[in-house]
Amino acid sequence: MRDLIRSSTTSMTSVPMPLKFLRSHYGSLKESCTNMTDEKAQQLCASIVSVLAMGQDQQPAGSRECLKYCLIAKQRDVGDWGHEYIRQLEGEIADEWALSNNKEELLPLVESIIKFDMKHNAEIQACDLLMEIDKLELLDDHMDSTNYPRVCLYLVNCAVYVEEPERGSIVAGVMKHYLRFKEYPRALCLAMQLNNIDMMVDIFSKCEDPLVRKQLAFMVGRQQLSLDLNDDLPDKTDLTIIMSNVHVNDHFHSLARELDIMEPKTPEEVYKTWLEGLVLRPSYNLDVPVDSARHNLASTFVNAFVNAGFSRDKLVSVEEGNKWMYKNKQHGMLSAAASLGLIHLWDVDGGLTPIDKYLYTSEDYIKSGALLALGIVNCGVRNDCDPALALLSDYVLHESVTLRIGAVLGLGLAYVGTKRQDAIALLLPVLSDSKSTPEVVAMAALACGLISLATPNSEVVSTILQTLLDLPVAELTDGHYSRFLPLALGLCYLGQRDGTEATRAALDALPEPMRSLSQQMLKMCIYAGSGDVLVIQEQLQICSEHYTQSEDKKESDSKKDKDKDKDKDDGKSKAKDMTAMQAVAALSVAVIAMGEETGSEMATRIFAQLGRYGEPAVRRAVPLAIALSSISNPQLSVIDVLNKYSHDLDEEVAHNAIFSMGLVGAGTNNARLATMLRQLAQYHAKNTGHLFMVRIAQGLTHLGKGTLSLSPFHTDRQVMNFSAVAGLLITLVSFLDTKTIMLGKSHYLLYTLATAMYPRWLVTLDEQLEPISVSVRVGQAVDVIGKAGTPKTIAGVHTHTTPVLLAVGERAELATEEYTPLTPVMEGFVILRKKPQN
Questions:
Q1: Among residues 300, 294, 303, which one has the least CA distance to residue 270?
Q2: For 273, which DSSP code?
Q3: Pairwise CA distance, residues 63 & 86, whole Å
Q4: How confident is the model at residue 455 (pLDDT cuts 50, 70, 90)?
Q5: Which residues form the 26S proteasome non-ATPase regulatory subunit RPN1 C-terminal domain (predicted)?
Q6: Is 410 in contact with 789 (CB distance < 8 Å)?
Q7: What pLDDT score does 833 carry?
Q8: CA terminus-to-terminus distance, the chain
Q9: Residue 260 contacts residue 267 (beta carbons within 8 Å)
């Protein structure tokens, strides 16, 4: 009977005829099977009953007869009955595994199913089954050079939807497979995802090919990490130089020459005032004089953003640059001098000379700006001479508070993510110094957080906690800078879920508005980019609360000996601070969801509700959160939503929405967005605050003349750059209090975006690490996870010659057969190896 069933059809699409006839006899066959005394006959009968059970409609729930009779038959060649039978068995095994106590008897069957799946291009089903029963190690024996890429790709993408610690173990397992098949760049990618420094160093040690090691060093440099490699590597010095990013500036300039954009741009060329109509002509008697300090400050930032990294501009670095400094007032001078750092970004050797001359001026604000500029120039680049540490250390505890600000924040930006103990030791005394103002304390805390990024340094954590606990109540409830302390604490724990219990417990000792705010900040940083749905739901719950002031008013009525008006104000400020915590919760929804595209889309939809019905503080955070979900990715739907918010009646919502438009279009030169911003400039011509934001957004849209990106994700959106996230978070948290910080005197915090700036390029290098031009196909990235065969990875292809610029969501592949790339992801610096001639 079994042979008849198997040989009766060769078609893949029809059910064998004998099976159709036997369906009605299913019950009697089961009975016969049970009553059989001959073991061999019983096993043969059970195998047929097992196959028939697959097509039975009226089976009792949870009977799992297909599996039950398969086990009686003791089959080992289950694959002979076909894919559909295997699929049915897999479903039943997963159910049985959850309930069964005797799991051992299922393992031989599982083994044979996995063997069949892996040989018949059904690797995805094999992975699903093994994840259900938590036995992924069974894959090890069945992996070979033909099937490992599909299996690993699928497992890594499944890991996103799994809870820790299972997630970590899946990724670590995949990394082991990659190392086994010598896929070192892919393994390094996963180690960077886990932010595991030891694993990265280990991958370098295991990689025997010196050229591949150089490729790995370029990848680590993109992540802005400085690894302490093993001394037994023969090319350790070369690798360390590559990781230090000193080459970025030269390559960036050659890209600019290739694209013919070296010529500096002026703010006027960015604003295109001649297209704005007559509204902004000086002859019109407006409330805002065109050459006002606020207007000049906006031009300073726009000039810095547009010419970032080009080492040339027409305002600050020219001979008369000094004049421009004095066209600004006080903190405006600080930002004007600091803009030099952005213009000379990554050019440590060339940038020090033009900045250095401002260190000898008598004006403290300009001097402080020059100190900050020194830090910005070194951002993301390591230099053997350590100019930032040498020049800034003298000013960290300077008598002048203004100079302290520039030196402290400059150190933070220069050594972001380096874990440099000597820099931290310089900064910690500033936190406890009696002469430090709340602003200086906040900047020192942020600098410590930036340097010890994503690795909790016990000294830094305890000092920041102590500073928070020692703050006077007035500063905790109404201080504009106190919110940066918990953010600095969060930066130490960025992406680190382990070992946060003690810090959380310590935060419980703070008085109420600050306690909730601090805990939300910490949670936001711990889960950044994780896509954790449960945490997002908690945050949304917090955003939807409505805090009333009734309790505060009752308290104020009972205290008759105090002035009534004063008490009402206290009530208001307390309620306001509780909503400040809600604003952080709204922002953290985007911070947590940004690592995962589906989550980001869902979050953007939810923000529509928060924007309509949320508290004022939550509504102010919504545009920022929307922008974070779509940084340097100007999708039409996102721009339109932000454009609506930019006309909001609440001034701060409008300010944040306009700035968010700049973030969404950062470095894209998006024409539609540029037109919208020009219209906004006309609409808000008489409102200095709004106009300032429009100018900043215009500057960001043309960031680096359209060559730079602020996106914190790279390598096909697989790896999150912690330094970039930190810079974005500091900027966005500053915008939760726009009037005091950004439109007040701390606008220099915009320069923290420098940590996220990086060219959105593909540069190909030959084996001597010299730039080489080859043709590449660039198109929209296509998701090929779990697809059969070898599907196309890009769509809508255009052929270009390297170096090329890649937009968000674009992918490149070589269009020539002459070379092999040493990394599977064509992005950033890619070394090409010439194929041997036949």
A1: 303
A2: G
A3: 17
A4: confident
A5: 785-837
A6: no
A7: 92
A8: 56
A9: no
Tokens 């997630």, residue located = 167
Computed over every residue of the chain, the mean pLDDT equals 84
Write the CA distances from 770 to 251, 254, 832, integer angstroms: 10, 12, 10
Contact 299, 267 (CB under 8 A): yes
d(CA 347, CA 103): 62
Any idea where the domains of the chain sit in the sequence?
1-62, 162-227, 528-548+567-629, 761-834
Query: Does the structure show a pLDDT above 60 at 557?
Result: no
How far is the C-alpha of 698 from the C-alpha of 665, rounded, in Å? 9
Write out the two tokens for 487: 């953010």
Tell me how crowded residue 536 is: count the other CB atoms within 10 A of its CB: 23
Cα 105 to chain center, whole Å? 45
Position 3 pLDDT exceeds 70? no
Q: Are strands 761-765 and 804-805 parallel, antiparallel or unpaired?
A: antiparallel
C-alpha angle 753/667/725, rounded to 5°?
35
Quote the tokens at residue 57.
Answer: 């409609």
- Is the omega angle on the peptide bond into residue 165 within 30 degrees of 0, that is, cis? yes
Share of the chain above pLDDT 70, in %: 90
H/E stretch holding 199 reads helix 197-206
DSSP class of residue 13 equals S
Residue in this structure with the two tokens 């990294």, named with its chain if needed: 309
Q: Which residue has the tokens 């410590």?
A: 448
Cα pseudo-dihedral 139, 209, 245, 766, rounded to 10: -110
Q: What is the pLDDT of residue 10?
A: 52
What number of other Cβ atoms are within 10 A of residue 289's Cβ?
12
**Per-residue pLDDT tens for 118-135?**
888 888 888 988 888 888
Strand partners, 719: 714
Task: Identify whether the C-beta of residue 337 lies closer than 8 Å to the C-beta of residue 363.
Answer: no
* Residue among 173, 205, 213, 204 at smallest CA distance from 190: 173
Rounded Cα–Cα distance for residues 53 and 30 (Å): 10
**DSSP-based three-state secondary structure for 804:** strand
Residue bearing the bigger pLDDT, 62 or 12: 62
pLDDT range class, residue 320, cuts 50, 70, 90? low
The Cα angle at residue 487 between residues 482 and 489, in degrees rounded to 5: 105
DSSP 389-441: HHHHGGGTT-S-HHHHHHHHHHHHHHTTTS--HHHHHHHHHHHH-TT--HHHH
User: pLDDT tens for residues 47-62?
Assistant: 888 788 776 666 666 6
Tokens for 604, please give them.
Answer: 């953007």
Residue 25 neighbours by CB under 8 Å, 6+ apart: none
Residue 798 phi, psi (nearest 5): -125, 140
pLDDT-wise least confident of 254-263, 705-714, 736-745, 785-794: 785-794
Q: How far apart are CA 88 and CA 64, in angstroms?
A: 9
Percent above pLDDT 90 for the chain: 35
The answer to whether residues 644 and 619 touch, using CB atoms and an 8 Å cutoff, is no
Lateral strand order in the sheet of 819-821: 804-805, 761-765, 828-834, 819-821
